[in-house]
Amino acid sequence: MKQGDLVCRKSYGGDVIFRIQELKRDKAILKGIDYRLLADSPTSDLVPASGAEYQAMRSTHMKVEELIRGQRQRRALQSAPYFEIPGKVLHLDGDPTYLRKCMAIYGALNIPAEGYYLPETEMPDALYRLLPRSRPDILVITGHDGLLKSGREGGIYHLENYKNSLNFVRAVAVARQFERNRDALTIIAGACQSHFEALLKAGANFASSPARVLIHALDPLYIAAKASLTSIRETIDVAHVISGTYSGMEGLGGIETRGSHRRGLPKMSQPADA
Fold first, then answer.
1. 112 shares a domain with 39
2. For the segment 90-132, what is each residue's pLDDT rounded down to a tens digit?
3. How far apart are CA 186 and CA 184, in angstroms?
4. Which class for 232: exposed (0-12), middle (13-18), buried (19 or more C-beta within 10 A)?
5. Chain centroid to CA 49: how far?
6. 156-169: string of b/e by CB count within 10 Å (b at 16+)?
7. Do 90 and 194 share a domain, yes or no?
8. What pairs with residue 140 in β-bridges?
9. Does any domain span residue 19?
10. Do 229 and 161 belong together in one domain?
């Protein structure tokens, strides 16, 4: 095995496909391909990912691909002389690889978006600077998280038992100081196994993870895209949008929220600035 290989862990039944980030003697540093998951493993526990496993992994992108196709088809069939202003996204991500994937998809959907790779610990302070400059309609705060093996008393309800949930909570709180109205700024926050209840209490509209499960790397993006492309005259169908994510109700939850998409007349030769 070498750096860059796709592998699975035998002891976990091959449930997640990883890419080998680094090899250190008899240990490998692993990064999830589709899940926001970092791990280490003895090399003796690793096996190459099979073709069938890789195809199953690819199928997890289908929801996002369907969203892109549907958006393009809708624009092609639109006969009325409207112009459109999708909601603007500010996306903070603790992983540069996942951020690049997300920014490419925002671009394919013609969603105006700014993306920044930041360590989770730096996100709260960065928002003091980024929010007044970006003025987004939708804020995504994500990266890596997880329950710590050596947690304190209080189990899953103690914020200090998580790798980054406290950082995400602080970032949401900063954003809510900037904009208290949950319809004026839609916040999607959290990553794998994050403290769902604390994130909602801090002011998030959507958050992970009610059942403390792993979430797909593109799940926060999927919800952000739905928020951006839903009319301001409508509320986002919470059950429908969450059922469209790979992780489902165990991975994400949220509250009724108004969309951010606007139409205008007459249609302009140049796109309108959001």
1. no
2. 999 999 989 999 999 999 899 999 999 999 999 999 999 999 9
3. 7
4. middle
5. 25
6. eebeebbbbbbbbb
7. yes
8. 91, 188
9. yes
10. yes
Cα 1 from chain centre: 30
Residue 56, number of CB atoms within 10 A of its CB: 13
Res 189: pLDDT: 98
Same domain, 229 and 104: yes
Strand order in the sheet with 27-32: 38-42, 27-32, 18-24, 6-9, 46-48
Domain boundary among 17, 37, 56: 56
- Distances in Å between the alpha carbon of 250 and those of 132, 141, 164, 254, 270? 34, 19, 19, 12, 43
* pLDDT score for 75: 67
pLDDT in tens, 223-251: 999 999 999 999 999 999 998 888 899 99
Whether residue 216 lies inside any domain: the answer is yes
Measured CA to CA, the distance from residue 54 to residue 4 in angstroms comes to 14
* pLDDT per position as a tens digit, 24-71: 888 998 888 777 778 888 899 898 887 655 555 554 466 677 777 777
Q: Are residues 99 and 49 in the same domain?
A: no
Q: In terms of domains, do 68 and 40 share one?
A: no
- Residue with tokens 């992970």, as numbered in its chain: 208
Residue 12: domain span: 6-56
Same domain, 71 and 140: yes
- Let me know whether 51 and 183 are in one domain: no
Task: Give the separation between CA 147 and CA 199, rounded to whole angstroms.
Answer: 15
Domain at 99, CATH number? 3.40.50.10090
